[in-house]
Specification:
Number of strands: 4
Helix content: 25-40%
Number of helices: 3
Shape: extended
Order of helices and strands: HEHEHEE
Largest sheet: 4 strands, mixed
Radius of gyration: 19 Å
CATH architecture of one domain: 3-Layer(aba) Sandwich
CATH superfamily of one domain: Gcn5-related N-acetyltransferase (GNAT)
Distance between the termini: 46 Å
CATH topology of one domain: Aminopeptidase
Length: 118
Amino acid sequence: MDAQVILETQELDEVANEIRERLLAFNQERAGPFNDVRVVLFIELLWIDEAARRQGIGTSLMRAAESEARKRGWEVCFLSTFTFQAPEYYRKLGYEPFGELKGMPPGHSRTWFAKWLK
């Protein structure tokens, strides 16, 4: 089989949707049907101004997000942080590392953390 790689520059949404549909079908064939309920909370951004840090604001926000996720029946929360940000903070909140990209950015690492909510 000869494969050809083509850089798609137009109709990106159509291409992405086709890939998404095929991947979902592939995954469901092997893992069974997925329900429509999200079971994962992804914390994309958390920022507390330096003047307001160490006052429990971040912890309150994280606990509130986790509480809401539990109410919705979600199973796990995950996030990423850099070594110059807050990896120890997330460990203190009960998050466990499950992946690390060393040297990104140079001289640092990016670590992914997860916390099971059930």
